[in-house]
Amino acid sequence: MPVKDYLRLRFLPHIWCPGCGHGIVMSGMIRAIEQIGLQKNEVVAVSGIGCSSRIVGYLDFHTMHTLHGRALAFATGVKLGRPDLTVIVPMGDGDALAIGGNHFIHAARRNIDLTAIIMNNRIYGMTGGQGSPMTPQGMRSTTSPRGIADPAFDIVELAKGAGASFVARTTTYHATELTRMIEKAIRHRGFSVVEVLSQCPVYYGRQNRIGNGMEMMKGFRDDTAPIGSKKKEARPDLIERGIFVDEDRPPYPGGRGGTNETTMQK
């Protein structure tokens, strides 16, 4: 099925800024769902608030646009009520790890059968470029013009520590890898997390003089490396990409979620 058949074309053109990476993530999500063979009425996409969360407005699935930071809480309710459905939660780094941080760690701890896709653009874009928990230390935002003082979270380490049974990281530059990781995350039974480094050229790139969207994507190419690669051995400072955790554990509660044979063909 063509990608456009998964979209609500009446809501286009989209509101994302030129060069934003979130459209690439949405495309990867659609392609993963198509490759699994899910029907549109078998999928629920739940989001909170933020640029990334606008995805649910454009997708022609069952969708919920909920409160800031509460997407995982709503998604948990959907999954417990309808375990036969595939529930995907696209979030931004602020939505997932600032106001939504508590929901994130407990969804991971419980191993609820959801797929969290975290678009990490290292900034609050929709509200004007404030610093998020993922803004690297020393980088500027509208609320930290001299450089942010706090160290950023490492999403992968946080998800691993909280107990997520599937944890992966990729970037918008690696579009094929992105689709493959989202597909594996959806197929996984349990709480799966895919961090996607996504560029925000308007509020993060411009503020920190990193360049436009294309230059930021080249940065993802140059500054990341596959797990355990020779490139990583030669440059330990690079950000690792790949699947960090893939464990088979009963999902919450007591293995109920996702056990329906019609669920996700997992």
Principal-axes shape call: globular
Q: How much beta, percentage-wise?
A: 15-25%
What's the tally of helices?
10
SSE ordering: HEHEHEHHEHEHEHHEHE
Roughly how much helix do the residues carry, as a percent range? 25-40%
- Report the average pLDDT across residues: 92
Q: Helix/strand-derived class?
A: alpha/beta
What low-confidence regions span 5 or more consecutive residues with pLDDT below 50? 256-266
The biggest beta sheet is recorded as: 8 strands, mixed
Number of strands: 8
Strand order of the largest sheet: 2-1-3-4-6-5-8-7
Distance between the termini: 21 Å
Radius of gyration: 17 Å
Topology:
Blueprint: H1 22-36, E1 43-47, H2 55-58, E2 62-65, H3 71-81, E3 86-92, H4 93-97, H5 101-110, E4 115-120, H6 155-162, E5 166-171, H7 175-187, E6 192-197, H8 201-205, H9 213-222, E7 224-226, H10 230-234, E8 239-246
Parallel strand pairs: 1-2, 1-3, 3-4, 4-6, 5-6, 7-8
Antiparallel strand pairs: 5-8
Write up this protein.
32% of the residues lie in helices and 17% in strands. The chain contains 10 helices and 8 strands. Strands 2-1-3-4-6-5-8-7 form an 8-stranded mixed beta sheet, with helices on both faces. Helix 2 links the parallel strand 1 (43-47) and strand 2. Helix 1 (22-36) crosses helix 7 and helix 5 crosses helix 6.
